[in-house]
Design brief:
Elements: H1 3-36, E1 40-42, E2 45-47, E3 51-60, E4 68-74, E5 85-86, E6 93-107, E7 110-126, E8 131-140, E9 147-149, E10 152-156, E11 161-164, E12 181-185, H2 200-245
Parallel strand pairs: 2-12
Antiparallel strand pairs: 1-3, 3-8, 4-7, 4-10, 5-8, 6-7, 9-12, 10-11
Length: 246
């Protein structure tokens, strides 16, 4: 009979452990989701001077009470992306703006004096908990820089505008509203495998793979944290139960 109070205490402790573990897991996963809810470009890298590829801009909706109704992506003109074409997107209308280059670019097909500086999508909606992928095909990427930054404005149905324009500093923390950034690697770099000509389907597959890898890493970290907390709570429950028996 004396064992009954100890068993009751153990059950209560285990229930508290399960509750704490569940709440911790939810908090960790929510934080991981929030950290990934930025406008991003996929793939994350291409080879310098890559030709005939596709860039996919993934735009998640971060608002619970408003929809994304306008997306503006600004392409750099100091290191221009040549031969830009926009893929038709159901429900959305794309407007392409070109700008005269301060420094013309010489190519095998002649000298290029103008390049696309902005692509704006309107007419569609991205609801709460949803995202859209916007594809931009290119003819050639620049060879004279290590990365391209695509500043982006995201407009919501309630008038709010989120400016994804911040650039991360070397060795610093990620800014609050980071701009989508594409790394440009040396042509012989193994990391530049994504520089091969890509179709729309290939770009979507790469984006999905990047997203899956990020999710897997987030879940792995969450699992380790939750497991450690569960073990600590269980050990505390056992020590407390033994104390009650004594």
């Amino acid at each position: 009979m004396p064992a009954m109070p100890a068993m009751t205490a153990t059950r209560r402790a285990l229930r508290r452990t399960a509750t704490v573990t569940a709440l911790t897991a939810a908090s960790v996963l929510a934080a991981a989701g929030a950290a990934a809810a930025h406008v991003t470009v996929h793939p994350e890298s291409y080879a310098k001077g890559a030709t005939d590829g596709v860039l996919t801009f993934r735009v998640p909706n971060e608002e619970d009470t408003a929809a994304t109704t306008k997306v503006q992506v600004y392409l750099p003109t100091d290191h221009p992306v040549l031969g830009v074409l926009v893929t038709p997107h159901d429900g959305w209308t794309a407007k392409v703006t070109t700008t005269k280059l301060k420094t013309p670019v010489k190519t095998d097909d002649g000298t290029i004096t103008e390049a696309v500086s902005e692509v704006t999508w309107t007419g569609g909606k991205i609801g709460a908990g949803q995202y859209e992928d916007f594809d931009v095909a290119f003819g050639q990427l620049p060879e004279d820089t290590g990365q391209l930054t695509f500043k982006t404005l995201q407009t919501y149905s309630d008038g709010k505008v989120v400016r994804w324009i911040d650039q991360a500093q070397s060795g610093g923390d990620e800014p609050e509203n980071p701009a989508p950034t594409l790394k440009l690697t040396a042509a012989g770099d193994a990391a530049a495998a994504s520089s091969a000509p890509a179709t729309k389907t290939g770009a979507e597959a790469t984006a999905a793979a990047d997203s899956s890898d990020s999710t897997a890493r987030g879940l792995g970290v969450a699992g380790l944290i939750v497991g450690a907390l569960g073990l600590a709570a269980a050990a505390f429950a056992v020590v407390r139960t033994r104390g009650a028996r004594s």
